[in-house]
Amino acid sequence: MIPEIKLSPIYPNSRAINQNCSGKSVKTNSIKSESRSDVSFGGVSRPISTLSKLEKNKTLSMSEYVKYSKLIEVLKDVPKSQNSPNMTPIQQLEYLLKTGKLLSKSNHDNSTVLDNLYSIATTKRAYNLDSTVIITNVLDLICHPKYVTQTFGDIPDNIKAEVIKRLPNNNPVKYNPSAMDVVASGTCAAASLEVNMAHSYPAEFARWVSKLSSEDMSLDLNIDLKSISKNPLEALKIINLLKAQKTFDGFNKMKIKVDLDDGAMARACVQSKYWDFGERNVADVLIQSAIMKLGSQNTYDSLTDIRGGDFNQNPQGLIEVEKTFVESLIKNKEITSLVYHQVDDEQNLVGYNCSLDTIAKHITQTLDSGDDVILGYVLTNETSGATLRENYDPKVDGKPNKVTNGHEITVIDYKKDKDGKLTFICVDTDDDNPELVSYSADWLLPKIHHAGYPAQIVKDDEYEIMKHVM
């Protein structure tokens, strides 16, 4: 591993937000930012995350009280974070206890948010990462998932020189240090999965950060093969195709190893010392790097944000199949990705595989079940704001809607006005705006290319939709 970065922690940080860090997704005037609650993301329609009634009403046992008291001691002098302007870390901890999230259990090893925060506080972190920084990162993002971002921070020149010195001679970055200056990151799918974990699976989110920042720098996912496919042989084929690190764990069960590439810890160390508001914090770096590595057949390089692998149509990001695979592993349940658009060989949007009402039904039913929806939308030359072609007449060339851009976001809630008009509440990790974003259904639904859902919710429509996929 690369790091040897020894600088003081950053409490508080007074440096300004970097305004020139992203810009991959095309912004349009149809997007409206909405200032919703700084803490609670349970909206008008959906239940509060995926917690059971027992978890919501549970009180601290004696052993849990000991852990809670330890965290209070660790956090007592820590001021408010810029990613939590209205609450101190202790107030965040109290909020999570009150809402039941602190004692919620992860879907892989039954550890709670409290268990994992305590582990961060009391066991050595890899490369001496500051445990207090990591704890506050976890608290910030569970309380405020809207602050999850895919914006890479800059690496100071002196640290960059140190990283380069530690790279093997065959690493191309050694001879092209500017490759580490990631401006337009491709981690939107990974960041959207991170939002989903922080919002609806807080204990699993905390477990990932705890394990990845530990000296092991890895974790295991305990997988039922049926969470990948109803056919165990098909599930095994998919796991082999995507080259996940696996070991059998009994009949129809498997352990999938999640770990980090070498550059991930270098990025984490830099962000623990040089974090600026609007950049990824340590938790963001660790989770997004691990997801990218897992989804890209273990080819991702965190230093350059470049991946290889058998499906690298683009050297950045994850494709739909890879993102769906990782989502199924994280949730340990079968996720079905539905493709709604018909796109021809010239990348023109020429039709839809179902009605817009059906798409709205899939999203709202998933939100009502307590989960979020990660979707990919596209913009076209008729709908892309600054790229809109004036006086466009589809009758001239018979080709409406040339696809020009795409982006992945997380829908965490919806609301209806008194007239029944539907609006989706979303987290966009790439809009340089640490607020929730509201999209009208009229604007968003026609642009949704694909979205992932629990298989049970869309089973009645899946065949009819997917038989039209070109």
Listing every helix as H and every strand as E from the N terminus to the C terminus, the arrangement reads EHHHHHHHHEHEEHHHEEEHEHEEEHEH
Beta content: 15-25%
Q: What does the radius of gyration come to?
A: 22 Å
Number of extended strands: 12
Spatial strand order of the main sheet: 1-11-10-9-8-12-5
- The structural domain count equals 2
Q: Which stretches are low in confidence, meaning pLDDT under 50 for 5 or more residues running? A: 1-48
Terminus-to-terminus distance: 44 Å
Percent of residues in helices comes to 25-40%
Which shape, going by the Cα principal axes?
Answer: globular
Our count of helices gives: 16
Mean pLDDT, as a whole number? 85
**Structural class by secondary-structure content:** alpha+beta
Query: Sheet with the most strands?
Result: 7 strands, antiparallel
Quick structural gist:
The protein has 16 helices and twelve strands. With 470 residues, it is α+β, with helices and mostly antiparallel strands.
Q: How would you portray this structure in words?
A:
The protein has 470 residues and is of the alpha+beta class. It folds into 2 domains: 48-322, no CATH class; 334-466, no CATH class. Helices cover 36% and strands 16% of the residues. The chain is built from 16 helices and 12 strands. The protein has helices spanning 53-57, 62-75, 89-99, 113-122, 131-143, 157-166, 188-200, 202-213, 232-241, 262-274, 282-295, 320-331, 356-368, 394-397, 441-444, 455-466; strands at residues 32-34, 218-224, 245-248, 253-259, 335-339, 341-343, 349-352, 373-380, 403-416, 422-427, 436-440, 448-454. The protein has a 7-stranded antiparallel β-sheet with strand order 1-11-10-9-8-12-5, with helices on both faces. Strand 10 (422-427) and strand 11 (436-440) form a beta hairpin. Helix 2 (62-75) packs across helix 4 (113-122) and helix 3 crosses helix 5 (131-143). The longest helix is centred in the N-terminal third of the chain and has 14 residues, at 62-75. The radius of gyration is 22 Å and the shape is globular. The N and C termini lie far apart (44 Å). Mean pLDDT is 85; it is low at 1-48.
